[in-house]
Amino acid sequence: MKKMGYKRILWLDASVLPWTDLNIIFNMIRDRGYFIQFNWHNVGRYMCKEACNYFDISYRETYKILSCSAAIFGIDLSNSKTAPIIDAWYNAAKSPYAFFSPRSDQNALSIILYKMKLSNLMWPYDTIGVPGNTNNQALFLIDREFVKPELCR
After folding, report:
1. Domain extents in the chain
2. Angle at the Cα of 90 from the Cα atoms of 59 and 3, rounded to 5 degrees
3. Over the stretch 52-96, which tens digit does the pLDDT of each residue have?
């Protein structure tokens, strides 16, 4: 992405819909260096020994690590503090063990943030709404009901 000339990137899972002007989000990424949201649980209950070994972290310690949401993720690639997150995450993805857990991408990202001492950079999860229930702070809408099995008969 950086080689292609991009300065700021934003990943949105297929179920995530922007609920505001994306320029607002990209300005937040520019101003803070990132847009990462935390979840309300720790990584530990979704970890396995193999992934812990890759990250050189104890299973017990993973219960201290706040999980982030990898469904919405933005980084300023020109920010020297936050740009290395992408390289660390990419390198972890090359390992057969780093992503070996039930919540592979977000566990890996959460541990990377923790080890880089960037966990405190995460935004509250209240910037996400769901269909029929949004608040004034909602920047994104998550619609996981888009798969309608009754239509596939």
Report:
1. 8-152
2. 160
3. 999 999 999 999 999 998 888 999 999 999 999 999 999 999 999
| pTM reported for the whole predicted model | 0.84
Give the containing element (helix H, strand E) for 129.
strand 128-129
Q: Which two tokens stand for residue 57?
A: 């972290």
Give me 104's structure tokens: 């592979």
* Structure confidence at residue 137 as a pLDDT band (50, 70, 90): confident
Q: Could you please report the per-residue DSSP string of 7-74? A: SEEEEE-TTEEE-S-HHHHHHHHHHHSEEEEEEEEESGGG--HHHHHHHT--HHHHTTSEEEEEEEEE
Quote the tokens at residue 53.
């070994």
Length of the chain: 153
